[in-house]
Amino acid sequence: MMQLLALPWWQIALGYLGAYTLLDAVSYVFPLAPFGITPWNPATGLSIALVVVLGRGYVPLLFVAPLLAAIVVRGMPLPWPAELAVVGVLGAGYAAARVMLSDPRVRFDPSLSSQRDLFVLLFTGVTAPAIVALGYATVLVWLGLLPSSQYAAAFVHHWVGDAIGIFVVTPFLLSWLTVPRLPKATVETGLQILAMAAALWAIFAYARASEFQFFYLLFLPIIWVALRHGLEGVSAGLFLMQAGLILAMHWSGQVPRDVAKFQILMLVLALTGLLLGVAISEQRRSQSRLRHHQEALARASRLTSLSALAAALAHEINQPLTAIGNYNRLVRDMIRSGEGNTPIASETSDKAIAQVDHAARLVRQFREFVRTGKAEMAPASPASLISETAALAKPLVEESNIGFSTKAAPDLPAVLVDRLQVELVLLNLISNSVEAISQAGRAAGRISLEARSSADSGYVDFLVSDNGPGIGPEILNGAATPFTTTKPEGTGIGLTLSRTIVERHGGQLTLGNLAEGAIAIISIPKAGGTYHVE
Question: Which fold does the domain 1-180 belong to in CATH?
Answer without folding.
Answer: Arp2/3 complex 21 kDa subunit ARPC3 (1.10.1760)
